[in-house]
Structures are given as structure tokens and as C-alpha cells.
Amino acid sequence: TVDGIMNGSFAGGREINRGGFIGSVGAPTNPNPLLITNCSTNMSLGSYDAITNIPISTNPTMGGFIGVYGVGTRTSGNAVISGCFSTGSVSGGSGIAGFIGKTTGGTMTDPLIIRDSYSTGAVRSSAQNMGGFVGVIASGASILAERCYEKGNLYNSVGSPCNMGAFVGSINSPITTIDCYSTGAVISTNA
Predict the structure, then answer these.
(1) What pTM does this model have?
(2) Lowest CB count within 10 Å: 14, 68, 101, 133, which one?
(3) Contact at 8 Å (CB) between 131 and 101?
(4) What is the tens place of the pLDDT at every residue in 117-149?
(5) Cis peptide before 174 (omega within 30 of 0)
(6) What's the rounded Cα separation, in Å, for the pair 89 and 63?
(7) How far apart are CA 116 and CA 129, in angstroms?
(8) Could you tell me the end-to-end alpha-carbon distance of the chain, in angstroms, rounded to an integer?
(9) What pLDDT shows up at residue 129?
(10) Which among 168, 26, 176 has a CA at the least distance from the CA of 106?
(11) What is the pLDDT of residue 17?
(12) Rounded distance, CA 97 to CA 73, Å?
């Protein structure tokens, strides 16, 4: 079980997975659940090297709260994120979002459950696959989202096609949403 608050900004070193609260987290294995409750972050994320201040070419996956939720070879497990939020902005390339940048695929039968959580920071990308709440849901990594919302604006400079969505950018596995919404503007500056 994880709970807490993080503040500040993070440009990163040379990490590939970046999150305002957690960079990368793996799916749990039964009987050990993954519970992240009542956590928040206002960290802003960018895709440049913190040491040299030069844009990095590895195109990190970034999420305002979690960079990557990885399923791997697990087939079941109870993972719940509840009462969490991110208010920092995210600026980068592909696979970025206000809350979770990307879920990685596998053969998971249990969805990642996200309840009563939100993001409000702006998301800016110069590549494909970006979303206000989740950037990419990979094959084999489903999500159940209940009472979640996104209020940050999305800006993309790659033009079309760019897999850009107010709530989810790219969907390759099921997502079930219950009482979820997005109010942020979706703006492509090079269409």
C-alpha cells in the first residue's frame, strides 16, 4: 500500500519511464495486491536531460502520476489506484498523458482499477499517442476507470494522424469507464 504527496518538477536524467509519483510499476501477483490510495503530485515533467538540459532522444513514456503500468507475464492480480490526482504538466513525445502514460501489454485477465482520481495539468506532445488521462492502453492490459476526470488541455504539434484523445489517446485493450469525463481542449497546431 502506498500513500503520500510529492511536489516539485522533474526533468529527469536519462530515464525512459517517468511519472510525477511513480516512474514505472509492475502489476501485482496474487495474493499480494497493489494499492495506491490518497496520493497526489504537482510535479511537472519534461523530456530533456536534467544534467545537460538537452532534449533526449529516447522519447520517454510519461504520465503525470504514473509513467508506465507494466503487466509483463502476469496473468492475474488486484491493482487499485484510488483517490489520487496529478496537477503538474507533462511535455514530451509519444505515450504521454496527464495521469498514466502507458500500460504495457501481456496476458492480464484482471483490469487495473482506477477510482475517484483525476489530472488537471496540460499535456504537450510532438509525437503520437497522447491522452488527457491515459496515453496508451496496450494489448493485454485493460483498465476499469470509475469517477475519474481530466481537465488539462492537450497540445500536439505533429499533425495528423496522431492518436490524440481527451481521455485516452490509443486503445488496444478494453477500457470500461463509469462516470468519467474530460473537459480539456484538444488542440493540434500542425494539422
Answers:
(1) 0.86
(2) 14
(3) no
(4) 999 999 998 888 899 999 999 888 889 999 999
(5) no
(6) 9
(7) 24
(8) 44
(9) 87
(10) 26
(11) 75
(12) 24
pLDDT value of position 14: 47
Residue range 28-41, pLDDT digits in tens: 766 667 888 999 99
**C-alpha cell of residue 10:** 522533474
Distance, in Å, from the CA atom of 120 to the CA atom of 133, rounded to the nearest integer, reads 9
Burial 163-185 (b: 16+ CB within 10 A, else e): bbbbbbbbbebebebeebebebe
Handedness of CA 150, 153, 159, 160 (dihedral sign): positive
pLDDT-flagged residues of the chain (< 50): 1, 6-14
d(Cα 148, Cα 178) in Å, to the nearest integer?
A: 8
CA 12, distance to chain mean position in Å, is: 16
Three-state secondary structure call for residue 56: coil
pLDDT for res 54:
52
58 sits in which H/E element: none
Give the DSSP H/E element, type plus range, for residue 80.
strand 79-82
Query: Residue holding cell 488486484?
Result: 78
Q: Please say whether the beta carbons of 5 and 43 come within 8 A.
A: no
Closest by alpha carbon to 93, among 138, 157, 152?
157
Beta-ladder partners of 130: 96, 164
Q: What contacts 52, CB < 8 A, 6 or more positions away?
A: none
